């Protein structure tokens, strides 16, 4: 079955430290991959996407993600976390007219 | 620039009642998506439209759910009859010119509680 997995329900990091939110996918072909962020009581907001080309994709708010085809991963990263980055993060992909979303990872950035 | 507008923001109703959720996409966007979010099942795509035509409704849970898009600026998601397990946050999103490579713009959702 095709799917997207976010293995961590929650990630805790101190402000100023680098953060990584993990995502792996299990789909055939060459999927389009993306990350969204959700703040409390709000809809999702687009962060970044990978379609083709450079494996390192830069997005909004200083976030970036690295596509690794051999490991079928698309981890979200930021060099220096802010308290305001605390939110729910969703990885997803689009492949053969279908969307797949991960279960979400709650990021907690502590001062 | 108005974003995706959903109404109502909150709905509480009794089991068996008809529920209608409404969505106004961003002007000019040609794709519209309906999602459901629950703690148990996460975020699920229910259905999406392109130029007012339903493209994929495979995520619609059962016949009690129906969605329409009578014109480019309005869509509804109906549940009839509603059941307690339909309680969730329902999101509408829209995008322009692409379903895969263009970001989706989400509304703030309708929080539905079925008693």
Features:
heterodimer, A: 111 residues, mainly beta, 6-stranded mixed beta sheet, 4-stranded antiparallel beta sheet, 12 strands, B: 115 residues, 7-stranded mixed beta sheet, 11 strands, globular
Structure notes:
The complex is a heterodimer of chains A (111) and B (115). Chain A is mainly beta and 111 residues long. Helices cover 0% and strands 55% of the residues of chain A. Chain A has strands at residues 3-5, 10-14, 19-21, 24-26, 32-38, 44-50, 56-58, 64-68, 73-78, 87-95, 98-101, 105-110. In chain A, a hairpin with a 4-residue loop joins β8 (64-68) and β9 (73-78). Chain A is globular. The model of chain A has no long low-confidence stretch (mean pLDDT 92). Chain B contains no helices and eleven strands. In chain B, strands 2, 4, 5, 6, 9, 10 and 11 form a seven-stranded mixed β-sheet that branches. Chain B is globular, with a radius of gyration of 13 Å. At the A-B interface, β5, β6 and β11 of A face β5 and β10 of B.
């Amino acid at each position: 079955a095709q799917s997207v997995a976010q293995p961590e329900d929650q990630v805790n990091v101190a402000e100023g430290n680098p953060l990584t939110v993990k995502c792996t996918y299990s789909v055939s072909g060459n999927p389009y991959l993306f990350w969204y962020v959700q703040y409390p009581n709000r809809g999702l907001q687009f962060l970044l996407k990978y379609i083709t080309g450079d494996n390192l994709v830069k997005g909004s708010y200083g976030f970036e993600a690295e596509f690794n085809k051999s490991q079928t991963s698309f981890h979200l990263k930021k060099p220096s976390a802010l308290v305001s980055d605390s939110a729910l993060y969703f990885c997803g992909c689009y492949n053969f007219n279908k969307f797949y979303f991960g279960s979400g990872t709650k990021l907690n950035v502590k001062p | 620039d108005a974003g995706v507008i959903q109404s109502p923001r909150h709905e509480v109703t009794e089991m068996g009642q008809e529920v209608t959720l409404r969505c106004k996409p961003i002007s000019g966007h040609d794709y519209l998506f309906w999602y459901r979010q629950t703690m148990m099942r996460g975020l699920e795509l229910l259905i999406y439209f392109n130029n007012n035509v339903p493209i994929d409704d495979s995520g619609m849970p059962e016949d009690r759910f129906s969605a329409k898009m009578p014109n480019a600026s309005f869509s509804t998601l109906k549940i009839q009859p509603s059941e307690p397990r339909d309680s969730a946050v329902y999101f509408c999103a829209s995008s322009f010119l692409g379903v895969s490579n263009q970001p989706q713009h989400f509304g703030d959702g309708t929080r539905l509680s079925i008693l």
